[in-house]
Amino acid sequence: MFPTRRLASQGFFKRSADELGRLSRIAWNTEALHTPTKPYTLLNFEDEGTTKGCKTMADRAVGGFSTASLDHEPADLSTNTPSHARFHGTISTKLPDNWRVERTGYAAFRNQDRGFWLLGRLYWDVDPYAYLALRIKSDGRRYTVNVQTDAVVETDIHQHRLYTRHHRVRQESSEAYESDAESLDATDSMPAALSDVPPESTIISTSTSTTTSGSDGWETVLLPFSSFVRTNYGFVVEPQTSLTRQRVKSIGIGLTDRVDGPFDLRIHKIWATNGMSEADVEEERRICGGNALPLDEGVRSGWTEQLEQQTTEAQPQPQQKNQDSKEKGLKGLKWEE
Q1: Which own/partner contact pairs does 196-202 have at CB distance under 8 Å and 24+ positions apart?
Q2: Coiled-coil segments, which residues (predicted)?
Q3: Closest CA to 184 of 128, 250, 241, 231
Q4: Which candidate, 63, 146, 147, 243, has a CA 20 to 30 Å from the CA of 253?
Q5: With 0-12 CB in 10 A as exposed, 13-18 as middle and 19+ as buried, what is 188?
Q6: Angle 286-266-253 (CA atoms, 0-180°, nearest 5)?
Q7: Cα(264)–Cα(204) distance, rounded to whole angstroms?
Q8: Rounded Cα gap, residues 79 and 75, in angstroms
């Protein structure tokens, strides 16, 4: 099958070359034979084209009054602020005159269809990774990360609350909690990944600062893929099914807290990872400063099983290489590279 002029004009050959190059690097470095220790970038908003390649959504499509914009912001070297995307607008719960609309107050964005390459439709394969990582600067509102896959039910979305180190619960949002309760299943139990309290599996900075200006406002959050909750049109559905990591179509962020007022979220990068590796940590410290996640954060979270200890009191101390291999997480994998 030969690509049409339309496919070629949309970067068909560039996408094919990029994907073939990525797969070749994986094969050359034998990354498929063990847990990857290097990050897999999904959306890098330092590139203005990534921002332009996303679409925004708001309740204005059904007559509501909320607004949503996604703009590219240039870097500020004086504060170590990288180029990034700014997701901003206003949430309004005012109902339109259309009597069919019973609830408003939402805004979101996501990347558009990734298109085709030589072997068909292009998806992200994040199966070898434990976490979805997001480097963001938040205003503290209750954002949700949305992941759509090539699922049997096309409208299914897997969601996870975007927790931050200054994630706040507003007293005036009790009405939003009631609306959330409507989307619970028959057991009336809120899934941990959508609650207001971050589950232990979520990795966020331990800083207590609430600053959201300059480099101090940036932080990196690691959300385990295994914790995402299957929803449909905002409602938790049963039976729950795991996120199809081999065929991820889109990633985005939404705001459905139904609290009237402005919102402002900055996003630098979204990637798949198994913890903070040496490939991440230099950039992490430069941008996030004192709020940076430490190297080998995956060790602390225990994302991989403890390797069996092979030393006893009667044995001599092993070489450094063997010591590294007995660690959990990225520290135990670095020697394999």
Answers
A1: 196/142, 196/161, 196/167, 196/169, 198/161, 198/163, 198/167, 199/227, 201/226, 201/227, 201/301, 202/163, 202/227
A2: none
A3: 231
A4: 63
A5: exposed
A6: 125
A7: 19
A8: 9
Give residue 267's identity as a one-letter amino acid code: I
Strand order in the sheet with 156-161: 54-58, 107-111, 248-255, 143-149, 156-161, 229-232, 235-236
How far, in Å, are 43, 218, 221, 291 from residue 285 at the CA level?
20, 10, 14, 8
Give the bridge partners for 117, in sequence order. Answer: 120
Q: What are phi and psi of 268, to 5 degrees?
A: -90, -50
Phi-psi region of 140 (alpha: psi -120 to 50; beta: other; left: phi over 0): left
Task: Output DSSP code: residue 321.
Answer: H
pLDDT at 331: 47
Task: Report pTM.
Answer: 0.76
Residue 146 C-beta-side C-alpha neighbours within 13 Å: 24
